Amino acid sequence: MKTKLFILAILTFVMTSQAQEMTSLGDKYFYSYAYKEAITAYQKDMASGKLVTNQQMLNLADSYFKTNDYKNASKIYLDINTKADSIISANRFNMMLQSLSKTSEPERVKAFMNSKREQLSNELLENAEFNFQLLETNSGKASEVEIFNSNGNSPQADFSPTFYKDKLLFSSARPEKSKKVYAPSGDSYLDIYVARIAESGRILNPNRFTSMPDSKYHKSTPQYSEEMGRLFYILSNAEDDQLSFDDNGKNALAIGMVYDGGFFRFLLRDLSTSFYYPYFDYETGKLYFAANFDEGYGGTDIYYVYTNNGQIMSEPINLGPRINSPGNEISPYIHDGSLYFSSDIFYGLGGMDVYKSNIQADQTFSIPVNIGKGINSEADDFGFILRKDDKKGLVGYFASNRPGGLGKDDIYGFTMKQIPGLRTFALKGKVVNLSSNQGISEAQVRLVGKNGTVIKELFTNTDGDFRIEIPWQDEITIQSTKAGHSVFTATYAEAALEEVQKNSFNMGITALEDLLAEAEGKTILDVEKFFFARNRSDLTPAITAELDKVIDAISRFPKLQIRIETHTDSRGSGTTNKRVSQKRADAMKNYLLANGASSANISEAIGYGEDRIMNNCTNGVYCLDFLHKQNTRTHFVVTNFEELN
Predict the structure, then answer these.
(1) What is the CA radius of gyration of the chain?
(2) Which of 339, 416, 502, 550 could bond to 145 as cystine, CB 3.0-4.6 Å?
(3) Residue 584 is inside which H or E element, if any?
(4) Mean pLDDT for each consecutive 10-residue tract of the chain (645 residues)?
(5) Calpha distance 26→254 (Å, rounded)
(6) If DSSP codes are grouped into helix, strand and coil, which group holds residue 466?
């Protein structure tokens, strides 16, 4: 039996005679989770010529999928999708692609996904492309991990571990005298067990956990908040040892809370909706959980509610399409600013895989990254937890139905030195105009590798914000620009890359128009007017300060071309004025070339002397000093303005 079936299906008991309208024996078996029998019954119906509807064909495809016959499952899913695209739900779309991934090359899955790009969310496409790249190229190396069987498992399902003081709690379907047999699974109703943790990490002497109200029905997926001294878990809706059903005959799962003193209260309860895998984050007061509300993105999504001392203070809030997908997302867990959860989305390694997403400062999430082989396998891997250990680094547990276990699901322990997950580089920030400090929309952001290849590029939103993530590289150049704007570029390696992604990364670029002015019918660089000493060409600090602005403009616009034009007034001889102005032009050119400009940036350097007087102060005309100074001027004329725009 697939683990996700055990977690998401058999936990919710449905009185099939009331909840479903049975039109065939195949339906009866299917809605009772007897998938092998459903396959046989549906096949007989088709062989005898009985009408089998699209819905029943999808039930048959689901039955093949649940019994690991992915070839037949994918064939039916694809056929129904072609005939009646609208009947394929988001969750079945995921199951179809999962089936294809089990029986075809990854390229076929990608091709099919690309054919549906218009119908899929940008987040799903980005998540898929990123994880495909990460897993296929091994460009993000997974943390080294040592995995061991916890030794406390049974032949039944054991899963959902959680730390409880110095012990471990977990869920189990092992038989108990006080528990009835749960028909869909053939095992006992689930209960919560407690075990000691040995120094080796293995669990010892598991026993039924009795510090909570007893029940004949399901108690499962515990999570203990040490700060609150409270235990959160799911349980069957029941009153006086009798299951409670909604109008359709459905018994759903609620979330309850038990204080250390034994007092119990319901937190989330709806007879028609099941809640799974509670996780309380003390720092934010959020209670996370999984549920399959109708408005979700696929099967089971992860939500949270705000709480105040255990009291629910908000409606459930979906974590959104960056985390939730057309598949099933379960078992949220937060450690050191990252959200860990499990998903059976089609681009993983197997059924359920563990993913990690960093929680940003604005409470949004980075791309969920498959944490790689070891913890994840081709089987179902879920219920991931970890904590720091002074001797071993990190110690944790998870459940899996991988080969070699004792039961349907086993609890495994692990140790590792570093935070788990394939290594990535994630950057979030803003592109701003250096003059106004306002965000620039549609600015290009690029990450360039060591060999000069563009790894990824995107454009900022209307506020100038961006977020970008790639598999880890040893060296990355971060660039930003926009037509008519300067270029930002910065290169980082190793430790600097780790640091730069910790905070918002703002890139300032300049609009070319902000650096320009108009003078004498020409487009020039906008610098402060400066003066040379009479008949001198020495570059004073005041002059070099303005020349540095020219160098800065060239550094921002490497293709900028200028012509240096310098003029004198009419005082003195015309020959001397011509010679002095040319020496000034040459001195400025040499300074620019020595400080970052290239010969390609300077088309000419011309000293006009007194040839282009701007007023009546020509030879022999008496003028006040300020009028003569109007003629003494230098312009840096932009000769390729049209090309730069």
Answers:
(1) 35
(2) 416
(3) helix 574-594
(4) 44 39 79 89 89 87 91 90 71 88 82 83 89 71 79 92 95 80 71 93 92 90 93 91 83 90 88 93 95 89 91 93 94 94 92 91 86 91 92 91 88 88 85 93 95 93 92 92 90 91 91 92 95 94 96 91 96 94 97 96 96 92 92 96 82
(5) 30
(6) strand
